[in-house]
Design brief:
Keywords: ATP-binding, Nucleotide-binding, Transport
Helix content: 25-40%
Mean pLDDT: 86
CATH class of the largest domain: Alpha Beta
Bound molecules: adenosine-5'-triphosphate
Low-confidence stretches: 282-296
Shape: globular
Distance between the termini: 15 Å
Organism: Fontibacillus phaseoli
Order of helices and strands: EHEEHEHEHHHEHEHEEHEEEEEHEHH
GO molecular function: ATP binding; ATP hydrolysis activity
CATH architecture of the largest domain: 3-Layer(aba) Sandwich
Pfam families: ABC_tran
Protein name: ABC-2 type transport system ATP-binding protein
Number of domains: 2
Number of helices: 12
Strand content: 25-35%
Length: 361
């Protein structure tokens, strides 16, 4: 049995229907009308122990509602849910022992007492054995750099400090699963990296299963092997992150550094479809001249864009090498951001996505 298993999971909210403006609000007082909103509509999901899963989708897709049902906060309207063999909304206490949760917008720390005391209280609530508590406190304090603020109350913490303390609180009892809802929202780059490193380390060393909802696509690339995309309450892609990239990220760019300029480099690729040459515009330098667009160009730097299904990087480099010396080169591929943005913008339809994800999860 999988660690997390849902079948046909559903959540329907009753939403008030009001006409706009004050008149609409007054009318609603006397004639109330409601409609059913399917926040989650038949989700089938299996997550195995030790996986790191990104659960993403546009605003209002149903991510938080799913997480709330998995954590036992919400009762499903239909379908089945099992987490570690437990029905979360029926066995809330037992379920709480196996899960941890971090909500970027909220804290589970006590506002007015020092972080150290909050963590001690959680130890009592979760009945964490003394040696586990000490070991985890030592590890978390070091990995999350908490020493400087353990004596401060939650109200005095910066957002980055608060998030680190919340992560420690969520993992203190060695849960099997941690739900992370926007764990790096609003954080600076350094704290983001620290938090991501911590999550990776907990997954690696303790085998903690991580389910992450985020709008920060850097989190996904850095942390997750599996991607589940949800839209309008339904899963539209479930598969390996790399697979969706391989299928949809067709474009590559080779950035090359030449020892001497290659005039008319564009001609070298004329017969290849979907190849374009770009000369990065760089301002103010004697060794640089004006390109076709009038922009100042570095004649020793060429960026060549190509479709990796139409030709290969080695073909491009070979052609350049036959006309000059390539001193250095680097290949860039589009990040998952671009692909997911295309999904959100409706440029990739669910049929194409599910074909890509078929059998991979
Ligand atoms: N308590 C509620 N009552 C009525 N409707 C709700 C309630 N909670 C959520 N919804 C609706 O259900 C849908 C899914 O909401 P949910 O919060 O799960 O989306 P989300 O994917 O987490 O969005 P976001 O990325 O903005 O956090 C939305 O249309 C939302 O308005």
């Amino acid at each position: 049995m999988s660690l997390i298993e849902t079948r046909g999971l559903q959540k329907v909210f009753r939403q008030a229907v009001k006409d706009p403006g004050l008149a609409g609000a007054v009318k609603h007082l006397f004639t109330q009308r409601y409609k059913d909103k399917y926040a989650v509509e038949g989700i089938d999901l299996r997550i195995e122990e030790g996986e790191t899963v990104a659960y993403v989708g546009p605003n209002g897709a149903g991510k938080s509602t799913t997480i709330k049902m998995l954590s036992g906060v919400l009762v499903p309207s239909g379908g089945e849910v099992l987490v570690n063999g437990l029905v979360p909304y029926k066995q809330r206490m037992e379920n709480a022992q196996v899960i941890g949760a971090v909500f970027g917008q909220r804290t589970q720390l006590w506002w007015d007492i020092p972080v150290r005391e909050s963590l001690s209280l959680l130890r009592d609530i979760y009945q964490v054995p003394a040696d586990t508590f000490k070991r985890n406190m030592d590890i978390f304090t070091e990995l999350l750099g908490m020493e400087a603020f353990l004596h401060l109350s939650a109200r005095k913490l910066s957002l980055g400090q608060r998030m680190r303390a919340d992560l420690a609180a969520a993992l203190l009892h060695d849960p099997k699963i941690v739900y992370l809802d926007e764990p790096t929202i609003g954080l600076d780059v350094a704290v983001k990296h620290r938090i991501r490193d911590f999550i990776k380390e907990m997954n690696r060393s303790k085998g903690t299963t991580m389910m992450l909802t985020t709008h920060d696509l850097g989190d996904i690339e850095d942390l997750c092997e599996r991607l589940v995309i949800i839209d309008q309450g339904q899963i539209i892609y479930d598969g390996k992150l790399q697979e969706v990239k391989d299928t949809f990220a067709r474009e590559r760019t080779i950035h090359t550094q030449l020892s001497i300029p290659i005039p008319g480099a564009e001609e070298l690729f004329r017969d290849l479809p979907d190849v374009s040459v770009e000369r990065p515009g760089i301002a103010g330098n004697d060794s640089r001249t004006k390109g076709a667009t009038g922009a100042v160009c570095d004649q020793l730097t060429l960026s060549i864009r190509f479709d990796r299904f139409s030709c290969t990087a080695s073909e491009i480099v070979k052609r350049l090498m036959s006309h000059g010396e390539v001193v250095d080169f680097r290949i860039d591929e589009p990040g998952i951001e671009q692909i997911i943005r295309r999904v959100y913008d409706g440029q990739l339809d669910s049929a194409a996505l599910s074909a890509a994800g078929k059998g991979s999860a």
